[in-house]
Amino acid sequence: MLFYVQMKWNYQGRISQDQLWDLELLEGEHGLEGLNSGLVKGLYKVVSQHRVIAIVEVATLEDLDRNSMGWLPMREYLEFEQVWALRDYPGFIEDVRNKFPIPPPPPVPSTREVAQQWFSLMGAGKSDEALKYVDDDVIWVNIPPTAGVSDLAPWLGSYRGLPAVLKSFDVWAAHSQMISFTPLSLIVEGENAVAVVHEHAKCLANGNEYDLYVSTHLRINGGKIKEWRVYWDISPLIKAYRNL
From 3.40.640.10, 3.40.50.410, 3.50.30.50, 3.30.70.1060, which CATH number describes the 2-97 domain? Predict the structure, then answer.
């Protein structure tokens, strides 16, 4: 997207005229670098004024601000007065002819696409990014609480809603540390995805490590994980936690 950027040197009483010339030279060199890179489409000095006009092509205002921070120390004195998003006139006229049609919504990712992204992010340790694929009202089903076992693994059970799920993960994190999360296989049919995951983890109380092979069942609808169920043999965890 193109942006019109109007800047003004605010230097009176702060720096000398000679210091201003030095900064304007730095700003000019930076501007020429922007022109050569294609980021800056046009750069103009307003005649008889301490103002600079730039036409800049960036994706968002945040990108513009992020790039502009590289102009320091100029940014301390070269202040943004106006920033306007611009539209090319041929595109504007085409929208007028078409009565400004509402753009179609982005396509909903398929079950396979969501599942692959989910397991890829989890395997890379990017659980926070993976959570964007989880519905706020998700149903999370771990193996049921079991007498003699739940005291070792108090996070077991079923939960509904992302806040409750995350709270159960906090309980898990107080007892265990995930060392690796490796998806081994993935089967997708309709809105269901089933994967076998190798989890290598450690008991924090005694440092014992253990391996689990977890069958993970996801029901995905509208690009979101609506149900999340896991099935696994708890005996390796018991052995590690009880130091057997």
Answer: 3.30.70.1060
**181 in helix, strand or coil?**
strand
| pLDDT value at residue 74 | 62
Considering only residues 35 and 230, tell me which one the structure prediction assigns the higher pLDDT: 230
pLDDT tens for residues 184-221? 999 999 999 999 999 999 999 999 999 999 999 999 99
Asked if residues 131 and 221 have their Cβ atoms less than 8 Å apart, the reply is: no
State the amino acid at position 196 in one-letter form: V
Answer whether 171's CB lies under 8 Å from 153's CB. no
- Residue 62's φ and ψ, nearest 5 degrees, are -60, -40
Dihedral of alpha carbons 170, 128, 104, 100, sign: positive
Predicted confidence at residue 71, as pLDDT, reads 54
Q: Which residues pair with 212 in a beta bridge?
A: 199
Please give the model's pTM, rounded to 2 decimal places: 0.58
Round to whole Å and give the CA distance between 234 and 232: 6
DSSP lists the bridge partners of residue 160 as: 139
d(CA 202, CA 181): 12
Residues belonging to the chain: 244
